[in-house]
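Running this now, will post back.
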Amino acid sequence: MAIIKKVNYLMLLIYSMAFFSVLGIGYRTIVALISLWTIGEFAYDWHQVVIGLKMAVVASFAVTLAAFIFNKIDEYNARKKPSSAPDK
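Update: finished.
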């Protein structure tokens, strides 16, 4: 595997971690603000933020692994010889 592809997968991992982290923290903040509006208590538990960050890491690894597997499938299909059916 070329160095450029390894860097691309690493960048995908980093960007997806950042995206899922911001998405999870934003979601928890919105839920805490709704809780503040309805019951008057700002329920923002930092333990849930840590769990959200862990889930972001798992999700980003899953996205990167799926991209890697689909890329390998495409490389395998590109190496296969073309079919012998005539073009119409």
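The chain has two helices and no strands. More later if anyone needs it.
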